[in-house]
């Protein structure tokens, strides 16, 4: 019943194949997935989900960011940001405060508990990077980061299909 | 109210910072997100979501794979696979057939419509890869794919927290 396709990138009719092994999109997805799962296994015992993780890191870098600014930095849509922040508030990691000057702005502030997690969890993030790039020379690592930045730059002009104007 | 954190990777107490610019996990996530969004903008006009996309590609390579085998190839949990396949069935792209020898196995088969999309959509995937790596030399591209494979290999021994035994 199953017919084995042409997995080696040859011609099938007029359409070139794009085997998973040489597909940047697929490999990016799989590498990202592996990294997120590893991270998850490290941080979940501390009550933090991968959904909260990057918001927490952004706030460790700069406490008091607005919801909108957090969305921009993490590259999430506002509803996703709201879901994560609601869970973080419930977990006692953040509080939200309306801006006194501009009432439309909501600032996100770490609680002492949210602050304290930094010393506990940031070393785990280092471990993830360490493990993911275990056999990389410093030059490899710099080059890899350069490629990842280039991909983002190359796609940056593309209009975001989800994005508000 | 906002206190600007130490974004340059210096010491804060005893914990080293891990700025987003040099965080492989964060950059992987952002590069993957940019690629998936670009892909989405290309394929959605054809009625295919990014959730269906990699299943479709796996089936174009090898029609008749079982649900379990599809999960393994795409790296998804079985419930995620089921959700995608149900949507694909509803969209008339696949049908499911029980294995005659082993009734626990369900084979996934492309419909003529699912087959026909290959000629239409695979060139779009090529375009995504093209755009994402527009300024890469062939050596850069090979090196980048090598790094992405290395990350997956380096994290492969880690037990999957979601995985069934």
Question: What do these coordinates show?
Answer:
The structure is a homodimer of 165-residue chains. With 165 residues, chain A is mainly α. The first copy, chain A, has one domain: Arc Repressor Mutant, subunit A. Chain A has six helices and six strands, in the order E-E-E-H-H-E-H-H-E-E-H-H. In chain A, the strands form two sheets. Chain A has a two-stranded antiparallel ribbon with strand order 2-3. Chain A has a two-stranded antiparallel ribbon with strand order 5-6. In chain A, helix 1 crosses helix 5 (112-132) and helix 3 (67-74) packs across helix 4. The radius of gyration of chain A is 20 Å and the shape is globular. In chain A, 34% of the residues are buried. The model of chain A is unreliable at 1-14 and 161-165 (pLDDT under 50).
